[in-house]
Amino acid sequence: MSDGVNLSRRHLLRGHLKAAAPAVQLPWSLPWPEFVADCSRCGDCLSACPEQIIIKGDGGFPALDLGLGECSFCGDCASACQEPLFRPRDQRPWDYIAQITEGCLANGQVYCQRCQDSCEARAIRFIPVLGRVPTPSVDADLCTGCGACVGDCPVGSIKVASPAHKEHE
Ligand code: SF4
Ligand code: SF4
Ligand code: SF4
């Protein structure tokens, strides 16, 4: 039997077909269809996370809420999980990067550089423009997607997502 058929059978048996993928999955976790096929929703990852940023998402499956804090990439969620749901931790945890959306105060000519101060990786830069408030840009090579900037933005204008979902350059 192929992996695809096995996956479909497990979906049907567990009734997980309607669980929507969260905006931010756990670091190192498998692609969503594989994750929901084997996640028992035991909650061990939630209690293991020292940052307390793992929440119960759609269908009771774990998701990250980076508005609650940043991911330190400690790996405790993956270590706590009894199921084969996580990739080896010597790999990149994910391809997420920070994305700054339209609501950024700088777009309305309001001075703010709080996100730059939040970022230990120094991935957020402000380029001075004559006569205008500088706007932030994210260096995709430096950004780890940790989310420290997400909760620190006073107007909630930063999200973390895969580059394919990027809304604004
Ligand atoms: S890697 Fe650590 S901080 Fe990040 S979600 Fe997992 S347990 Fe929480
Ligand atoms: S913290 Fe938010 S509002 Fe302030 S510059 Fe950064 S993205 Fe814009
Ligand atoms: S997600 Fe983390 S590394 Fe990326 S810009 Fe925000 S604070 Fe910096």
TrEMBL record:
InterPro entries: 4Fe4S_Fe-S-bd, 4Fe4S_Fe_S_CS, NapF, PSI_iron-sulfur_center. Its cofactor is [4Fe-4S] cluster. [4Fe-4S] cluster 2 binds at residues 71, 74, 77, 81. PROSITE patterns: 4FE4S_FER_1 (PS00198), 4FE4S_FER_2 (PS51379). [4Fe-4S] cluster 1 binds at residues 39, 42, 45, 49. [4Fe-4S] cluster 3 binds at residues 143, 146, 149, 153. The keyword ATP-binding does not apply. Keywords: 4Fe-4S, Cytoplasm, Iron, Iron-sulfur, Metal-binding, Repeat. It is found in: Cytoplasm. The keyword Coiled coil does not apply. Residues 31-59, 60-91, 134-163 form the 4Fe-4S ferredoxin-type domain. Transmembrane segments: none annotated. Could be involved in the maturation of NapA, the catalytic subunit of the periplasmic nitrate reductase, before its export into the periplasm. HAMAP family: NapF. Interacts with the cytoplasmic NapA precursor. NCBIfam families: napF. Belongs to the NapF family. This is Ferredoxin-type protein NapF. It comes from Aeromonas bivalvium.
